[in-house]
Amino acid sequence: MDETARQAARQWTLAQPAVSAFVTSMVRDFRDRDDVLQDIAVAVIESYASYDPAHPFVAWAIGVARNQVGIYLRSRRRDRLVFDDDTAACLAVAIDEVAKEKSLQLDFLQDCLGGLEGRAQRLFELRYQRDMKPAAIADRVGMTANSVAKALQRVRDQLRECVQRKSLEAGVQ
């Protein structure tokens, strides 16, 4: 696999949740949805050479998805439960915006995680990076399982408040 194909695959992996959300909003039948999403993946990889890295990849991939969904919808024109082109365009824009906001929130979460210290950082690492249950964490750190669960709830609350604060500061909803 050459470097261009690797880069295309990386970009697609990051964009796929947003593209999938767009497709889900447009294609009601789950079997058709999977087929359309596969067609989009192929189209994205095949047309990756035309992607301009100066622009966001997710928006470009949603543009490719709009074309593929349009092909699907035209083939289903008799079905009364499909959206027109204007609605599809509006959904594409909305999903791209949501994807940008979620991406920013993940960046904020990373910043907030960096602010965890001491026991909070240790508990978070054991629970979410090592996937340990509260009872196993309790044995490791000398606490009860109930106190570990409560401490983890406080850590999650702290992280949620931090992300919300950073979102408000940045003007992200």
TrEMBL record:
It comes from the Bacteria. Residues 16-78 form the RNA polymerase sigma-70 region domain. Keywords: Sigma factor, Transcription, Transcription regulation. Pfam families: Sigma70_r2, Sigma70_r4_2. Residues 109-159 form the RNA polymerase sigma factor 70 region 4 type domain. The keyword Transcription regulation applies. Belongs to the sigma-70 factor family. ECF subfamily. NCBIfam families: Sig-70_gvs1, sigma70-ECF. This is RNA polymerase sigma factor CnrH.
